[in-house]
Each structure stands twice: as structure tokens, then as C-alpha cells.
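Hi P.,

Sorry for the delay on this. The queue was packed all week, but I finally got your sequence through. Input first:
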Amino acid sequence: MDPIVLEVGAIIAITEYFVIASAPNARQVRTIVEEVERRIKDDTGVVPMSIEGTRDASWVLVDYGDVVVHVFLGETRDFYDLERLWADAPRVDWQACGAALA
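Then the structure:
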């Protein structure tokens, strides 16, 4: 899964954090997305503003406003390489993002 969190708020105005993760197949991508939704809702009561990409599940984007979760198929993550695209953004401990959702 190799999750990382990038603090992008100083670079783009639409969100504060990108969470980036991946899985080896579409079923696991969907499962990760479902688990993220369930845990955030259970822990905070927050539901996504929107979800995109669930149909083919090669790149699913879950928008929580201040936090945007990107879950990729491994090869799709490699192709788009958001970590390189947003290399100027500092990496942060994923637990620090919990406060943004509360």
C-alpha cells in the first residue's frame, strides 16, 4: 500500500493534504476506499464530499475537503507519480491528518 501524506496547502488552495496509497488490484483499491470511508465516518462522523473513479478503480479520489485521498492501482500510481509532481510538498505523519477531519 505504501501510504504517504503530503501537505499541499501552501502549494494549492483547494486542499491541505493529499493521502496517496496503492494496491495491486481493483478489488483491493475498492476495499481500501471502503475502509477509509468507514473508519473516518465511525471516528469523526465525516462523510466524503465526493468520490470519483470507483467504476474502474485504477485511481479513486475521495474528497474530504481539507484532505483528499488518492488510492491507485500500483501501475497507475507509478504512471502519474504524484509524489514527484508534488515533490515540493512536505511529507507528514499520516496521524497528523486526523485533526484536519475532526
